[in-house]
Amino acid sequence: EAGVVQSPRYKIIEKKQPVAFWCNPISGHNTLYWYLQNLGQGPELLIRYENEEAVDDSQLPKDRFSAERLKGVDSTLKIQPAELGDSAVYLCASSSGATEAQYFGPGTRLLVL
Amino acid sequence: GENVEQHPSTLSVQEGDSAVIKCTYSDSASNYFPWYKQELGKRPQLIIDIRSNVGEKKDQRIAVTLNKTAKHFSLHITETQPEDSAVYFCAASNWNNDMRFGAGTRLTVKP
Fold first, then answer.
1. Are B20 and B84 in contact (CB under 8 A)?
2. Residues of B whose CB is below 8 A from A29
3. Please, which residues bridge with residue A44 across strands?
4. What is the DSSP string of B65-93?
5. How many CA atoms lie within 13 A of A89 on its CB side?
6. Which end of chain A is more exposed for a tag (fewer CB within 10 A), N or C?
7. What region does A102 belong to: left with phi over 0, alpha with psi -120 to 50, or beta?
8. DSSP assignment string, A53-67
9. Structure-derived torsion over alpha carbons of residues B26, A39, A68, A97, reported in degrees to the nearest 10
10. Backbone angles phi, psi at A86, to 5 degrees
């Protein structure tokens, strides 16, 4: 069974440009998470979906970040416009439900110049 | 919200020795405690987890203990090997699936 898939793996953009990340969770996992991981730190939750509903987006900087999971499977995270401080690894994870084990994708490493 | 503290931030052991990483949490409602191993440039991988109704869990060379009263939990790795070298993260999650991660421990196992 395939794990969590993310693309692209790497992205280099200039500041003020838009960028989008894509995630495909493990088949059958209804819960999907987007995390941000800065170098030398643990993952920090940006948003959590239960099926297509965003149930926790309190840590998502809504002025420039947006996310969607229209059909309750794949998800897209967008930043517009990107800032230098957005350089980080963006991790997607999925689980079969609340307080179940979360499995991470390989992440997208973003560098904003 | 939940706050998870992890110690030490770096740990160096000789191959064959044991390694212990400790975490404390603040939310008494937390009931799920996973541990992740992350090698450089790779995804965090779940290595073991424990729920609040269990005090200890073991999987080969890895064990986790939980003290709900003191609100701390620990990862124990015995007979360490060079391939155990990585960054280890603890996390705590409550019934609302609000999971918080520790800052990580960089473990180095010297041959």
1. no
2. none
3. A36
4. EEETTTTEEEEEE-S--GGG-EEEEEEEE
5. 22
6. N
7. beta
8. EEEE-TTS-TTTEEE
9. -40
10. -85, -5
Task: Choose among A45, A100, A50: nearest CA to B46.
Answer: A100
Question: Cα–Cα distance between A70 and A73 in angstroms, integer?
Answer: 8
Alpha carbon of residue A58 to chain centroid: 14
Side chain identity, residue B31: N
DSSP A18: -
Q: Which residues of chain A have a CB within 8 Å of the CB of B93?
A: 99
Cβ-contact A5, A104 below 8 angstroms: no
Using the predicted structure, report yes or no on whether residue A59 has a pLDDT greater than 90. no
Interval A83-112: pLDDT, tens = 999 999 999 999 998 778 999 999 999 999
- Write the residue in B42, B97, B102 that is nearest to A99 by C-beta: B97
Query: Buried (b) or exposed (e) across A5-34, using 16+ Cβ within 10 A?
Result: ebeeeebebeeeeebebebbbbeebbbbbb
A46: which 2 tokens? Answer: 């940006």
Does the beta-carbon distance from A42 to B34 stay under 8 Å?
no
Residue A50: CB atoms within 10 A of its CB come to 16
Query: Is B103–A102 a contact, with Cβ atoms under 8 angstroms apart?
Result: no
The predicted structure's pLDDT at residue A37: 96
Mean pLDDT over A48-73 rounds to 91
